[in-house]
Design goal:
The protein is of the alpha+beta class. It has 7 helices and 17 strands.
């Protein structure tokens, strides 16, 4: 689960957003293994990115959050199996508005769907992104979606970064959603990504096992670290598909689901994802990067997004119990970039 929410924990919200026990909408959660040890306030900010940390902390202080039916403190470290109940304030915005945004449906049945999410699309509404999200598109194209994750995230089982394209699962009803969530939790859902990196990976295949933590100064970025006190364990397997002079085309299979995991792990071995502004410092890749002598009138942008694509997802269908594998086609800008690399940077 690799999407990052542009949430500002220091953004204050008015007191009328303070939840009150027995008033408004109560949501119940069960703490999963991957979030064990987190402070309660951090855990709730992760679960409800639409609300600031200040609102979450006031909710805890006012006993609007209960753990196993008992009030507790912000500093409480959540444990696997804890039952968390929080009373959410009345939404200040209406439910996500259905928008007729084109969607490429890779697979669909009565229980779930797999969508080829385009790059540049946020998965669900949050502060600063109330329109144009995948959820807005889903609300238009599907009659029924799971509400297990609340009104603002109907159908959303997992996430992709805004500028990562590719296969993303959507649940149409709650039982399917629960079973998919359990498969993610027990790492039984297989996801494969493709990436083009800046830099050449020296091994044909390998694991990157480095903990991932929040950057100490930049709230948007993550870092690789060996510090067990701040980092969460993370593992990514990669296999080189093709090498070029200065670049690599690689397949990645994350064994865990940390924020920005593949991007951070590739950067940590000296090969950041191409055109990933956050970690490589550039948000586009041009023909002139391969041919410095190309005339300006012949120059073109090959990539204007990070070169990371969720190519394949494989799982056991929760209801039919049959194996299901779905692939998202290679984006045209990937094909264009690979063609240029083969022409100008072949090894």
């Amino acid at each position: 689960m690799s999407d990052h929410f542009d949430d500002d924990p220091d953004l204050a919200e008015p007191d009328d957003l303070l939840p009150v026990p027995g008033v408004g909408h109560a949501v119940e959660l069960s703490v999963q293994m991957k979030t064990c040890g987190m402070r309660l306030d951090q855990y709730l900010v992760l679960q409800f990115p639409d609300f600031s940390r200040a609102v979450v902390q006031r909710a805890i202080d006012s006993d609007s959050v209960k753990i196993n039916e008992l009030p507790t403190k912000r500093s409480y470290k959540v444990r696997q199996g804890d039952r968390v109940r929080i009373w959410l304030p009345t939404p200040q915005r209406p439910d996500p508005t259905p928008e007729n945004i084109p969607l490429e449906v890779l697979y669909e049945d009565e229980f779930l769907a797999v969508i080829n999410k385009p790059y540049g699309m946020v998965v669900h509404p949050a502060r600063g992104n109330w329109k144009g999200t995948l959820v807005n598109a889903l609300a238009f194209h599907f009659q029924k979606l799971s509400k297990l994750n609340g009104e603002y995230r109907p159908g959303i089982v997992h996430r992709l970064d805004r500028d990562t394209s590719g296969a993303i699962l959507v649940a149409k009803e709650e039982q399917t959603h629960r079973e998919l969530g359990m498969q993610f939790e027990t790492r039984k859902i297989f996801k494969e990504y493709i990436a083009i990196t800046q830099g050449v990976l020296d091994r044909d295949s390998d694991y990157v096992e480095k903990r991932i933590a929040h950057h100490p100064r930049d709230r948007i970025k993550m870092i690789a670290t060996d510090d067990e006190a701040i980092g969460k364990d993370a593992c990514t397997y990669y296999e080189v598909e093709e090498r070029f002079r200065g670049y690599t085309f690689v397949r990645c299979q994350p064994r865990t689901g940390r924020t920005h995991q593949i991007r951070v792990h590739l950067m940590s071995v000296g090969c950041p994802v191409l055109a990933d502004k956050t970690y490589s410092g550039r948000d586009e890749f041009r023909l002139s990067d391969l041919m410095p002598s190309v005339p300006p009138e012949r120059d073109e942008i090959l990539l204007n997004r990070q070169a990371l694509h969720a190519k394949r997802i494989r799982l056991i269908h929760p209801r039919t119990k049959l194996s299901l594998a779905v692939e998202a086609p290679l984006p045209p800008e990937f094909a264009r970039t690979l063609s240029a690399l083969r022409q100008h940077r072949a090894m």
